[in-house]
Amino acid sequence: MTGVAIVREYASKHPWWAAIIGFGAIVLLWMVFALWPAWLIDLIGKKKIFLSALFNGITLGGLYFLVASGFTLIFGLMRNVNLAHGSLYLLGGYVGYFVSEWTGYWLLAFPVAFIVVGFVGALMQIFVFRRMEGQDLRQTLVTIGLSIVFADLMLWSFGGDFFNISPPSWLSGPVETFFATGVKRSSGELIFMKYPVVRLAIFVASVVVGVLMWLLLNRTRVGMLIRAGVDDRDMLAATGVRIQLVFLGVFIFGAGLAGIAGVVGGTFQSVAPGEDIRFLLASLVVVIVGGMGSISGAAIGALIVGLAEQFGSVYFPTYAVVLTFLIMVLVLAFRPHGLMGSS
Amino acid sequence: MAIVETESKIVRLDGTRQNWLEKIPAQYWVVGILLLIMPLFASDFMLFQIFGWTFILGMIALSLMFLAGYGGMVSLAQMTIAGLAGYLVAILGDSAITEISQGWPWYAAIPVALIVTALFASAIGWLAVRTDGIYTIMITLAIAAAFFYFARQNYEVFNGFSGFNSIHPPSLFGVDWRGPKAFYYLTLFWAVASYLFILYISRAPFGLALQGVRDNSRRMSALGYNVVAHRVAAYTLAAIPAGIGGILLTWQSAQISPGTVGIGPAIDVLVVAVIGGLGHPIGAFIGALIYVLLKTFSTDALIALSLSGERFRLLIGLSFLVIVFFSPDGILGLWKKFKVWQQRNPFEQSDGRDL
């Protein structure tokens, strides 16, 4: 089914919702591209603030998507809520920091973090989860224990300091975008928004990762096996597929993605103890909002959570963090399995 | 009613029935008397810090044990519920933050605090029971985090980052209830009361229905039970021991702040309940005692092993892992295994055949 057909079907099923969503999209586009009239600036402040909140929200959503997609992939296939996912993220951040500091190559941090964290994920899958297959609750409890142990081990080895991964020179500094924020009083020229290149690059990268993941899942044989495993893993095993290998591969991939996200997060923000819990919670909220086990759900959820966090911190600074949880509660109350989840 | 209570009547040889005092097993007498005479030989530190804290933590873990063991719902929000009760006592009663604290007398503040806590817990329950299994853990964890951030950001009601201090228990009957002996007996009383309360509920028709819902919710709903109502009611009931524990915790440290209801403490409650064992209410208190002993004395032990004393969390995490790995039913499960092993006939194989 093509995109147009999906939109048409949705519009015929829910005409009112389609109208509201369409109207919202038009208003948003107008707010992004038009020069704001004075009454709007009086009402919600300068366009520059709005645009940077929008951009920060979308790019933060990209980072959340990187973390949450591995989490949701592992859950979807193995029914395993890996509450140590935040620890894997933080480990990736530390690995990335030391690699880029020692070698001086920022790009090298990504494959190294992927391999190291993926290896830790493989050890977890082989020595822990394989031994207690089918016992969801026990696996979850073990991941809680692992996250406590990992957090303390990392505090022990890396200390409580903040680390900042610095991006290479060709990615640092702002770039001028084509979004006008205002008009110069003196000359009448348009003022264009400036935005950090590295955030844009990382956002593009996360979109690429998302698209590649979608292609892998929907267009390859391995992806077919994974999707079959999500639907009915016993049946898949009965057809002769070595399901343990599929599990191992998915776990390594999900953990490696968390490691890459750690490098990204360390460049965006910082690597420090406590970030593991923060990103675990973020990915929990993302997958609860988006729907467990669904990649597209993770993308939508990450976008919503990232935007809510950034707009919240600009327009209601006190309760910015609470806003994301409020969204989660609302989604739960009306769609217990998430926006894209199947019951 | 479909459930028929079959009362076990133990009849003596001379035909008279045992009275209820005689039915209590001997080990209960030993533990009970030991706990009652503890202040005669234990130091003030032991009474106030070790046992006071054990009983409080045990009550909060007991509420989780009730939900997880009898209801099959692992809630990480129990520390949040306890913390809310503590906050409400500070807000409605007396504290050093006189701009916020209402200064109500204790007989008004405490019941209102517990009632509001129970309502809050029901709301959490209503949200959480819409999902099941591992989803419940995630949602209650997210709720706990939301409450933590809210309490830290809100200065009008929760006084933000610093929270409340100088919250003292009322001096009822002219006793200073924060004195070590008095506080020991206060916490002991409420711990025993909560223990008996949960034990009673678990054997009452409601508790049996709840266990039925845990084992097979579809069958119970086919039998005409309202599954959602039972689950939400379990959250409401579990809020009572948690709330009392939270109020006592606030009195013990004389303060409450967002750190009390953080994500770490919320997970610690789960650790305590799982280490002790989710099979029986006593497990919560066993787990709490182990946790408190580890937390208090691990620093010295670690330094003796020439490790830094800060590695307490590593120790607690590892012991949690070991327990979950080898005995999913916690210490209680290990005890049961030991008993089975003890009663085994050495001349038989484990499946009962002769060698």
Description:
The complex is a heterodimer of chains A (343) and B (355). In chain A, 73% of the residues lie in helices and 5% in strands. Chain A contains 14 helices and 2 strands. Chain A has helices at residues 3-13, 15-33, 38-44, 47-78, 85-103, 106-127, 136-158, 197-219, 221-231, 233-238, 243-268, 275-290, 295-315, 320-334; strands at residues 174-183, 190-196. Chain A has a domain at 48-275. Chain A has 343 residues and is mostly helical. Chain A is globular. In chain A, helix 1 (3-13) crosses helix 2 (15-33), helix 4 (47-78) runs parallel beside helix 8 and helix 13 packs across helix 14 (320-334). In chain A, a hairpin with a 6-residue loop joins strand 1 and strand 2. Chain A has a two-stranded antiparallel sheet. With 355 residues, chain B is mainly α. Chain B is 68% helix and 1% strand. Chain B has a single domain (44-295), classed as ABC transporter involved in vitamin B12 uptake, BtuC, CATH 1.10.3470. In chain B, helix 3 (44-71) runs parallel beside helix 7 (180-203), helix 3 (44-71) packs across helix 12 and helix 8 (205-215) crosses helix 10. The radius of gyration of chain B is 22 Å and the shape is globular. Chain B is built from 14 helices and 2 strands; from the N terminus they run ααααααβααααβαααα. A two-stranded antiparallel sheet of chain B has the order 1-2. Classes of the chains: A mainly alpha (343), B mainly alpha (355). At the A-B interface, helix 7, helix 12 and helix 14 of A face helix 6, helix 11 and helix 13 of B.
What is the annotated CATH architecture of chain B? Orthogonal Bundle
Spell out the helices and strands of chain B N to C. HHHHHHEHHHHEHHHH
Alpha carbon gap, first and last residue of chain A = 22 Å
Give the beta-strand count of chain A.
2
Q: What is the general shape of chain A?
A: globular
Q: Average pLDDT across residues of chain B?
A: 80
Oligomeric state of shown chains: heterodimer
Order of helical and strand elements of chain A? HHHHHHHEEHHHHHHH
